[in-house]
Amino acid sequence: MKKYLFTNPDAKLIEGGICAPLGFTASGIYAGIKQSVNSDSAAEGNESPVKQKKNDLALVHCSGICKAAGVYTTNLVKGACIDVTKRHIADGYAQAIIVNSGNANTCNADGKEKSEMMCNLAADALRIKPEDVIVASTGVIGQVLPIKPIEKALPALAESLSRDGGTQAARAIMTTDTYEKEMAVEFELGGKKVRIGGMCKGSGMIHVNMATMLCFITTDIAISREHLRKALRQAVGDSFNMVSVDGDTSTNDMLMIMASGHAGNKVITDSNANYDKFVLMLKEFCVALCREIARDGEGATKLLVCNVRNAKFAQTAKNLAKSVICSSLFKAAMFGADANWGRVLCAMGYSGEQFDPEKVSIDFQSEAGKIRVCENGAGVLFSENEAKKILSDDEVYIEIDVASGTESATAFGCDLTYDYVKINGDYRT
Amino acid sequence: MKKYLFTNPDAKLIEGGICAPLGFTASGIYAGIKQSVNSDSAAEGNESPVKQKKNDLALVHCSGICKAAGVYTTNLVKGACIDVTKRHIADGYAQAIIVNSGNANTCNADGKEKSEMMCNLAADALRIKPEDVIVASTGVIGQVLPIKPIEKALPALAESLSRDGGTQAARAIMTTDTYEKEMAVEFELGGKKVRIGGMCKGSGMIHVNMATMLCFITTDIAISREHLRKALRQAVGDSFNMVSVDGDTSTNDMLMIMASGHAGNKVITDSNANYDKFVLMLKEFCVALCREIARDGEGATKLLVCNVRNAKFAQTAKNLAKSVICSSLFKAAMFGADANWGRVLCAMGYSGEQFDPEKVSIDFQSEAGKIRVCENGAGVLFSENEAKKILSDDEVYIEIDVASGTESATAFGCDLTYDYVKINGDYRT
Question: Fewer CB under 10 Å: which end of chain A, C or N?
Answer without folding.
Answer: N
